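Task 17 of the worksheet. Students: predict the tertiary structure of the chain below and write it out as structure tokens. Keep your answer in the requested format; marks are given for formatting as well as content.
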Amino acid sequence: MDAMVDYLRQEMECYGLMECFHGLKILDREVFEWLVAAETPQTVDAIAAAVDRERSTAYRSVQRLIDAGFLEREQVNYAQGGYYHVFAPRHPDEIADEMLRVLNDWYAKMGQLIDEFREEYEHAGTDAATAHTGAD
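Model answer:
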């Protein structure tokens, strides 16, 4: 189903929306849902244990969620030196606002392309109608 028309006709749910906008995977959704339920920032080790995956797999999922704007990374410093990172979901309003911005940008671009299509082929339709009328 590559055509946009086909995609728009299918029923979508919230997670389909996450996948549609950002190409997120099932694991990414699981990680995001777990972090939302956790209510406090979590380490990659805790995330990996919660979703029963290797640390490297959990880290790749976390990175995709950060890149997509769903998670925030916070550095926690040890008193004796060194640090580690914890991850938390961004506020749903921030995520939704960003998706709306992307959608509005896309909508504006599609509108521009449709206008260009109309202008490019406007005369072709008029010329074909004139040629057809003249042939009668």
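Marker's comment: The first helix runs from residue 4 to 9. The mean pLDDT is 87.
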